[in-house]
């Protein structure tokens, strides 16, 4: 077995795929009305975006009685400040709660948290 793709639910697969394509510098490999797939240029695990008509934006940090995040992406970077600026320019927001100095929790346009973390 081999993990090939991580899927994120979204009300607008094309829009969220464009966000991550810009963030990561990846190309869209497959685009259909309800599913869009980004393939990693190095052949690694890709990202897929699937329409969920009843999508509820997750809350970060978690709050009782509100939609919880089910997973988040970890994105290694060499320059945390530059990566954060790039993410914001692509359409991300920086989460108000930051649990670590060497990590920036950001939210994609649909509210999925992702972490930018300093590799060096």
UniProtKB/TrEMBL annotation:
It comes from Micromonospora thermarum. Transmembrane segments: none annotated. This is VOC family protein. Gene3D superfamilies: 2,3-Dihydroxybiphenyl 1,2-Dioxygenase, domain 1. Residues 2-120 form the VOC domain. It comes from the Bacteria. Coiled coil: none annotated.
